[in-house]
Amino acid sequence: MNEIDYLRKQKHYQNNNLFSPDEAIQYGTAFKALAIPYKNYKTANVVATNEKERLMLDIQKYDLVCHDLGLYLDVFPNDGEIINIRDNYLKMLRESEEKYEKKYSPFNKCSDKLDKVPFSWSTSPFPWGGK
Question: Strand runs (DSSP E) across 1-50, as ranges?
């Protein structure tokens, strides 16, 4: 099931309380009620220009949504619907991380792909450094 189909089944999405991950990365939050513009701030349309950037953007947007939903669950730990939504995005995050690391390199120091010396970040550009 893709993320749009999954979200359509969720009450929180139907009630327009949550942004999709693509919207969340633009607004900086998963919750629509928290997207309060500052003065004349306009959201940026975040666009990946190549596959490496697209994979990193996927990691960033799913990580943002998982983090925000985790903070919500700190306050409302019994919200089963949000737990299910977060679990789904956590799965998407892990899949995105695996795809990135398989094709490029580990992107954080907790990666289980860091099993040989020298570590890849000492011999290649940082993932957030672009090309």
Answer: none
How many angstroms from the chain centroid is the CA of residue 90? 8
pTM for the model stands at 0.75
Q: What is the pLDDT along the chain (131 residues), one digit of tens a residue?
A: 555 555 555 544 444 689 999 999 998 899 988 888 888 877 778 888 999 999 999 999 999 999 999 999 998 899 898 999 999 999 999 999 999 988 887 776 666 666 666 655 566 666 566 55
Give the span between the Cα atoms of 76 and 3, in whole angstroms. Answer: 23
What is the CB neighbour count within 10 angstroms for residue 123? 8
Phi, psi of 5 (to 5 degrees): -60, -40
Q: Which residues of 51-72 are buried (b: 16+ CB within 10 A; e: fewer)?
A: eebebbbbbbbbbbbbebbeeb
Specify the DSSP class assigned to residue 127: G
